[in-house]
């Protein structure tokens, strides 16, 4: 049967790249999104494609969810207030969307005859770990922000549904994303650093030796296709760290790579920034079970973005901050 994949929150940074990938590979794609950041522009490339269907709506609105679920075979839960700062700024909306809305979806999509429901979580759940440690999927979770706390809550909510729902649930703990997207975000480390240095802004980097895993958005899209097509026995209510060992990097490693392209970039280092996260992650499980390894390195991503900026892309990104990141929401439930 031809798959029709519902991307819940599919008009965002990751979801639009998944849309491009899946349409190119011959799948049908349905998206439900409420354009929380007035990000309507991001679905423009797909509107009119006979294999693409967009349903405007909120994940707390069962009527909209019913409309979106017509004819679908699988669901990917991407929607949310994404990032620590935005959840700190809007704690009430964060509870409504990231906790209640996702939980609603986990319940709503039972008995809809679906194959898989994939919940996109985050490696931020590991929080702060010791320098020599490597977090695999069984490593204790230490969510430091409202954002990560909601992810941990809904991971557990979904995992408890094993044997109680008719779909195969899967949790993917995404590394921090980088790469170009129709809904570009410059509030993520790699892209923010590259853009600021490119436009000659002095870049202040806190805690430059802290580790974080990264993954290119196109690799996430390939991974999603792998998961959707995986044998049930390999992924059934499993949690996977999503990324690759090759892209575990410190902030300093990212800066050094940018300076290879822009040697006169202005960088200052500081200590005790507001974001204490430091985690190095093991991606062995996803490699061993699904054969997934990233094709794009952080170095490739930096080159790609500098190429885009040189071509004049995102020339308004220093001025139109809200268009390019998760800062201000437009939400009435
Ligand atoms: N970008 C990253 O670095 C990263 C890292 C780890 C995990 N993730 C996860 O990947 C997913 C996608 O992240 P992203 O970077 O594309 O974020 P994004 O903010 O660009 O996209 C989120 C989308 O969800 C939509 N949305 C928000 N609330 C909604 C609601 N109530 N109803 C319907 N739609 C709603 C927004 O309008 C937006 O289009 C998220 O679940 C995020 O937690 C992302």
Helix-strand blueprint:
Elements: E1 4-8, H1 13-24, E2 28-33, E3 52-56, H2 62-68, E4 74-77, H3 84-89, H4 91-108, E5 116-122, H5 146-159, E6 168-174, E7 176-178, H6 189-198, E8 203-206, E9 211-216, H7 217-229, H8 232-235, E10 238-242, E11 248-250, H9 251-261, E12 267-270, H10 284-290, H11 298-310
Parallel strand pairs: 1-2, 1-4, 2-3, 4-5, 5-6, 6-10, 7-9, 8-12
Antiparallel strand pairs: 9-11
Helix pairs in contact: 1-7, 4-5, 6-9, 6-11, 9-11
Bound molecules: nicotinamide-adenine-dinucleotide.
Residues 9, 11-15, 33-37, 39, 58-59, 78-80, 82, 97, 101, 120, 122, 174, 176-177, 183, 185, 188, 326 line the site of nicotinamide-adenine-dinucleotide.
TL;DR?
The protein has 333 residues and is an alpha/beta fold. It is 35% helix and 18% strand. It is globular and about 55 Å long.
Characteristic terms for this protein:
333 residues; alpha/beta; Rossmann fold; seven-stranded parallel beta sheet; three-stranded mixed beta sheet; 11 helices; binds nicotinamide-adenine-dinucleotide
Bound molecules: nicotinamide-adenine-dinucleotide
Radius of gyration: 19 Å
Instruction: Report the count of strand segments.
Output: 12
Low-confidence stretches: none
The N- and C-terminal alpha carbons lie at a distance of: 36 Å
Spatial strand sequence of the major β-sheet: 3-2-1-4-5-6-10
CATH class: Alpha Beta
Instruction: Enumerate how many helices there are, as a single number.
Output: 11
Mean pLDDT: 95
CATH architecture term? 3-Layer(aba) Sandwich
SSE string, helices as H and strands as E: EHEEHEHHEHEEHEEHHEEHEHH
């Amino acid at each position: 049967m031809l798959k029709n994949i519902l991307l819940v929150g599919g008009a965002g940074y990751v979801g639009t790249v998944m849309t491009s990938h899946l349409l190119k590979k011959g799948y049908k794609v349905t998206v439900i999104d409420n354009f929380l950041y007035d990000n309507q522009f991001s679905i423009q490339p797909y509107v009119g494609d006979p294999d693409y269907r967009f349903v405007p709506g909120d994940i707390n609105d069962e009527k909209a969810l019913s409309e979106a679920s017509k004819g679908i075979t699988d669901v990917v839960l991407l929607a949310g207030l994404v990032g620590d700062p935005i959840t700190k700024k809007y704690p009430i909306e964060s509870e409504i969307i990231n906790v209640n809305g996702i939980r609603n979806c986990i319940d709503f999509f039972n008995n809809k005859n679906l194959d898989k429901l994939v919940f996109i979580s985050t490696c931020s759940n590991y929080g702060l770990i010791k320098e020599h440690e490597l977090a695999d999927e069984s490593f204790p979770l230490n969510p430091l922000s409202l954002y990560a706390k909601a992810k941990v809550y809904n991971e557990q909510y979904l995992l408890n549904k094993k044997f109680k729902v008719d779909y195969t649930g899967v949790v993917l703990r995404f590394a921090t994303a980088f790469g170009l997207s129709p809904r570009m975000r410059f509030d993520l480390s790699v892209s923010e650093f590259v853009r600021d240095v490119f436009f000659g802004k002095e870049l202040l980097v806190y805690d430059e030796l802290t580790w974080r895993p990264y993954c290119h958005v196109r690799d996430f899209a390939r991974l999603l296709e792998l998961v959707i097509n995986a044998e049930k026995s390999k992924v059934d209510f499993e949690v996977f760290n999503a990324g690759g060992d090759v892209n575990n990097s410190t902030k300093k490693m990212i800066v050094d790579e940018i300076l290879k392209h822009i040697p006169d970039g202005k960088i200052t280092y500081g200590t005790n920034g507001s974001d204490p996260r430091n985690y190095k992650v093991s991606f062995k499980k996803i490699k061993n079970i699904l054969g997934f390894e990233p094709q794009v390195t952080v170095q490739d991503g930096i080159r790609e973005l500098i190429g885009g900026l040189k071509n004049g892309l995102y020339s308004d990104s220093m001025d139109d901050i809200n268009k390019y990141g998760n800062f201000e929401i437009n939400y009435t439930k």
